Structures are given as C-alpha cells and as structure tokens.
C-alpha cells in the first residue's frame, strides 16, 4: 500500500545542516525551515500556513541540539494533488529527514480523515471527497507513542467525531510506519 492517496505526490529535498549567520542563528539548536512549493505558481497563504504546521511537526522530532547554529532547509515540491495533500507532505517530510540521516527522536506520519455528509469517516480522501465533506481533519502522529504532534481541522465536527477520526488515523499510522520500515529495509538491502 502507498503512504499517500494514489495520485498525490510530493518530492522532498533536504539541505544542511549548513552554517548560518545573523537573525536565523539559534545558539542552542539547528534552525529548521520548511518551504512548500505548489505544483504551479508561487506559494500563497495556504502554503505558508502549511509550512508552519510542517515545521512545528518536524521540530518536535528533530534532535536539533546536535547541530546548534546551523540551518536545515526542507523543500517540499508538490508534483500532483488529488487530495489529502497535507498528509502527503508530512510523509514526504519524514522520509526526507530520515533519508538525510538527521537524528530523530521518533518518526511521524500524516493521515487525513474526512467526515462525509452522513458522518462516515473516509481515510485519505480525494479532492472531491474533501469538497463534499462536512469536516476534513489532518493529524501528524508520532511513531513512539502514537501521540498527536499536530492536528488541523477544516469544517465542523463534534468532539466525539474528532476522537473517532483520531482513532482511525492512529490505526492507519501503523500501516504507514510499516511502509517506512519496509522501504528503508529495501533501500539498505540494495547497497
């Protein structure tokens, strides 16, 4: 199974840790920057708000104290968007950090849930399912304790519905973490 909905794909590139001077320098840890590039055009309000969510999530697991006064830049390029884009960005970000060999306290993954008009939970919704949904929730879930590192909600849902979506997302996360482990194993067995 694929860690993202069939037709959504995001390419991750990681630069650093590089020396940094001036206002971006943090004396006790690495400064992390996340840049989200849309498929076409320039980044707008939506991209910038997602960059913040992605940065917060990455900062929660990157052991940046090992590289103080440096900068790490993660660039996420959207190749195609057929729904559940933020979740796909989260997965690409984690794979990018992992690939770069940065020290991480745990892995994380993104899962998007939509509540359809009947209140049923749809995992990895397509763009159309998102548009028709009463609410769309995206969670970033860590691999150590399955806890939520970041959550964002669009639309309206009850606390109970949110808890049901979270439980479904935590179950889906297990599949994604297994995918990570398998792909890392494949990569190292080739070399």
UniProtKB/TrEMBL annotation:
<feature type="domain" description="Exoribonuclease phosphorolytic">
    <location>
        <begin position="6"/>
        <end position="103"/>
    </location>
</feature>
<comment type="subunit">
    <text>Homodimer. Component of the RNA exosome core complex (Exo-9), composed of EXOSC1, EXOSC2, EXOSC3, EXOSC4, EXOSC5, EXOSC6, EXOSC7, EXOSC8 and EXOSC9; within the complex interacts with EXOSC3, EXOSC8, and EXOSC9. The catalytically inactive RNA exosome core complex (Exo-9) associates with the catalytic subunit EXOSC10/RRP6. Exo-9 may associate with DIS3 to form the nucleolar exosome complex, or DIS3L to form the cytoplasmic exosome complex.</text>
</comment>
<dbReference type="InterPro" id="IPR036345">
    <property type="entry name" value="ExoRNase_PH_dom2_sf"/>
</dbReference>
<dbReference type="GO" id="GO:0016075">
    <property type="term" value="P:rRNA catabolic process"/>
</dbReference>
<keyword id="KW-0963">Cytoplasm</keyword>
<dbReference type="GO" id="GO:0000176">
    <property type="term" value="C:nuclear exosome (RNase complex)"/>
</dbReference>
<dbReference type="GO" id="GO:0006364">
    <property type="term" value="P:rRNA processing"/>
</dbReference>
<dbReference type="GO" id="GO:0034475">
    <property type="term" value="P:U4 snRNA 3'-end processing"/>
</dbReference>
<dbReference type="InterPro" id="IPR001247">
    <property type="entry name" value="ExoRNase_PH_dom1"/>
</dbReference>
<dbReference type="InterPro" id="IPR050080">
    <property type="entry name" value="RNase_PH"/>
</dbReference>
<dbReference type="InterPro" id="IPR020568">
    <property type="entry name" value="Ribosomal_Su5_D2-typ_SF"/>
</dbReference>
<feature type="domain" description="Exoribonuclease phosphorolytic">
    <location>
        <begin position="107"/>
        <end position="171"/>
    </location>
</feature>
<dbReference type="InterPro" id="IPR015847">
    <property type="entry name" value="ExoRNase_PH_dom2"/>
</dbReference>
<comment type="similarity">
    <text>Belongs to the RNase PH family.</text>
</comment>
<dbReference type="GO" id="GO:0003723">
    <property type="term" value="F:RNA binding"/>
</dbReference>
<dbReference type="GO" id="GO:0000177">
    <property type="term" value="C:cytoplasmic exosome (RNase complex)"/>
</dbReference>
<keyword id="KW-0238">DNA-binding</keyword>
<dbReference type="Pfam" id="PF03725">
    <property type="entry name" value="RNase_PH_C"/>
</dbReference>
<dbReference type="InterPro" id="IPR027408">
    <property type="entry name" value="PNPase/RNase_PH_dom_sf"/>
</dbReference>
<dbReference type="GO" id="GO:0005730">
    <property type="term" value="C:nucleolus"/>
</dbReference>
<keyword id="KW-0539">Nucleus</keyword>
<protein>
    <recommendedName>
        <fullName>Exosome complex component RRP46</fullName>
    </recommendedName>
</protein>
<dbReference type="GO" id="GO:0071028">
    <property type="term" value="P:nuclear mRNA surveillance"/>
</dbReference>
<keyword id="KW-0597">Phosphoprotein</keyword>
<dbReference type="GO" id="GO:0003677">
    <property type="term" value="F:DNA binding"/>
</dbReference>
<dbReference type="Pfam" id="PF01138">
    <property type="entry name" value="RNase_PH"/>
</dbReference>
<keyword id="KW-0698">rRNA processing</keyword>
<dbReference type="GO" id="GO:0071051">
    <property type="term" value="P:poly(A)-dependent snoRNA 3'-end processing"/>
</dbReference>
<keyword id="KW-0271">Exosome</keyword>
């Amino acid at each position: 199974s694929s860690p993202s909905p069939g037709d959504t794909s995001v390419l991750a590139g990681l630069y650093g840790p590089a020396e940094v001077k001036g206002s971006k320098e943090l004396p006790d840890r690495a400064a992390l920057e996340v840049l989200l590039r849309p498929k076409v055009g320039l980044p707008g309000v939506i991209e910038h708000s997602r960059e913040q969510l992605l940065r917060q999530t990455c900062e929660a697991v990157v052991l940046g104290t090992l590289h103080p006064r440096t900068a790490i830049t993660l660039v996420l390029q959207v190749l195609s968007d057929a729904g559940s884009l933020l979740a796909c960005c989260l997965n690409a970000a984690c794979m990018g950090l992992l690939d770069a060999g940065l020290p991480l306290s745990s892995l994380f993954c993104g899962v998007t849930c939509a509540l359809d008009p009947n209140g049923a939970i749809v995992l990895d919704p397509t763009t159309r399912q998102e548009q028709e949904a009463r609410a769309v929730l995206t969670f970033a879930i860590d691999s150590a304790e399955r806890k939520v590192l970041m959550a964002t909600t669009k639309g309206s849902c009850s606390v109970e519905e949110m808890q049901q979506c979270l439980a479904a997302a935590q179950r889906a996360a297990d599949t994604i973490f297994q995918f990570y482990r398998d792909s890392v194993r494949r990569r190292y067995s080739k070399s």
